[in-house]
Design a protein that fits this description.
The chain has 145 residues and is an alpha/beta fold. It is built from four helices and eight strands, in the order E-H-E-H-E-E-H-E-E-E-H-E. A four-stranded parallel beta sheet has the order 2-1-5-8, sandwiched between helices. Helix 3 crosses helix 4.
């Protein structure tokens, strides 16, 4: 039986690729693996950023590190590369990490590095939306099962 493909943020698949070198394994990962063919991507790494790396947030339309370095290009390049992987695997649905400047859906950190949220989407999430992907976060992922 062919399982449908599901794009997933690599950190949710247990890969230690977050800015601080950690992962946030999705609690229902085994159930997802039974129902879907998972395609794990980390747009930030695909864009050339190392792990661990400085925390980044969107500030006035750019992605800046906590130290003020503009890393927008890395986020945009990684989003494009991750999109290519998704399309090559015929993905149309994704489970993305919440609040991330790459993968956040609906709400992302506001650029003050104070854990304050603002409405918006991460760079990769916005790109997927522009390609008509259906997006889920860990909060809404129960709808996938």
């Amino acid at each position: 039986m062919n399982k449908p493909p599901l794009l997933i943020s690599a950190c949710l698949a247990g890969i230690r690729c977050r800015y601080n070198g950690s992962s946030v394994p999705f609690p229902l990962l085994e159930a997802l693996e039974q129902a879907y063919s998972l395609v794990a991507v980390c747009p930030e790494q695909l864009g050339g950023l190392i792990t661990p790396r400085s925390a980044s947030e969107r500030v006035n339309g750019r992605i800046l590190t906590k130290e003020g370095e503009d890393v927008t290009h890395f986020f945009e390049a990684g989003a494009q590369e991750a999109l290519c992987i998704a399309l090559n695997h015929h993905c149309t649905t994704a489970l993305l990490m919440e609040r991330s400047p790459s993968c956040g859906v609906g709400f992302i950190y506001d650029g003050t590095f104070s854990s304050t949220l603002t409405e918006g989407n991460g760079v990769f999430a916005a790109l997927l939306i522009s390609h008509s992907f259906t997006l889920y976060t860990p909060t809404s992922a129960g709808l996938l099962l």
